[in-house]
Amino acid sequence: MDEEYDYIVLGTGLKECIISGLMSIEGKKVFHMDKNAYYGGNTASLTPLKALFDKFGVSANLEQFQKGKDWNVDLIPKFIMSNGKLVLLLMYTGVLRYLEFKQIEGSFVFQSGSIHKVPCNEVEALSSSLMSLFEKRRFRKLLVWVMNVDPSDQSTWENVYNPPLNLKKDTIMHAFSAFGVDEDTQNFVGHAICLYPDDSYKQNVPAVEVIERMQLYSKSVLRFGKSPYVYPLYGLSELPQAFARLSAVHGATYMLKAPFEQIVLEEGKVVGVKLDGKLVRCGAVICDPNYAPDRVKKVGQVVRAICILNHPIENVQNSLSAQIIIPQNVVNRKHDIYISCVSHPHMVCPEGFFIAIVATTVETAKPHDELKPGLDLLGTIEQVFYSVEDLLTPLDDGIQSQLFLSSSYDASTHFESTCADVLEMYERITGQPFDFSKVKQLMAKWNEPESTD
């Protein structure tokens, strides 16, 4: 083992593995380790099925679930936006060659007491059961306008209403008002299309960001046709493992079951990591919150329920995989409830079974009860595993100490917030933002239509 590295990375969660891969590609000397015997950290997929039962201390007759080795159960629910930033990072690093993806068959929203497909184009807008006839027309006009907006061409957006819209200063409420869309339409646009976890975007986010999110969703649906999401075969842990493989190809050193003791600082700055009594020196440490608990603060909690079903979820158009979002105000909450569902086409369970995960941000002293609106949509549940985890975020930016921490994974069922954290960390570590122009040509190739069925 080399005695000194540019970076030591602690933890093999997806965020840490992406950063490790980016640094390795850029020619940095990286030592990447994990206290666990498996890759993935909080983004691990547990297999065989017994590992899941053991982790949660649950005993059951596992024969009813068929072959245990056919199960790969994610600890957190996340899908990949097919035109999102994670795909760009997968392309830039070359990790795509290590992975196989299959689309998620449907994206839905719970509103007015039932589940509806999220409309994302003109045809779906006019046929959606979400809206009245007149509201469909208003939403269609909004959608057509959004898809034609070019932030660099003022003529495409300024005259949407009187007085003219300032795309970078005004909020999307100006456009909502101009097109006359009602509150229910605003709900599914903001939460099921733009994927905001609460309504603060209506007051605090410039219209351009909301419009770009709507465009991203629609373009991602166009990629495969049924939903904007894809998912890696064999579970989410395939993602950090693929990045680990990439880092190793570029010279990174890896160690699982690492005898980690502590991060060592001198005069407030990182000098290395102590392993089994020996100091391994480095210029900086990158880690998840578990490795530096004194450097993070709790900003909330996430409650999740991993559910094993022996039937598909009803009212999702016979989809074998789906995302369902329950907007906050539909169930008198401050945060949305998220449901993800995958099954045998994704190689995560035997045929006839389904894995559904319900998650939300904790608001009360009874977090399990907060999941009830989501659990009620699942029907009969064969087995459920509950978890409540703290949401942790770094106390500082780490620039002075050269100790860079990621934040915990939120309750959402997509990786957009995860990528935002990765890119923010990258800028803190390197002093410059990631240059997405590097992957424009690759993205054009990815967008060539093809089928994943």
Automatic annotation (TrEMBL):
GO terms for molecular function: GTPase activator activity; Rab GDP-dissociation inhibitor activity. SUPFAM superfamilies: FAD/NAD(P)-binding domain. InterPro entries: FAD/NAD-bd_sf, GDP_dissociation_inhibitor, RabGDI. It comes from the Eukaryota. One of its GO terms (biological process) is vesicle-mediated transport. It is found in: Cytoplasm. Its main location: cytoplasm. GO terms for cellular component: cytoplasm. Keywords: Cytoplasm, GTPase activation. PANTHER family: RAB GDP DISSOCIATION INHIBITOR, RAB GDP-DISSOCIATION INHIBITOR. Belongs to the Rab GDI family. Regulates the GDP/GTP exchange reaction of most RAB proteins by inhibiting the dissociation of GDP from them, and the subsequent binding of GTP. This is Rab GDP dissociation inhibitor.
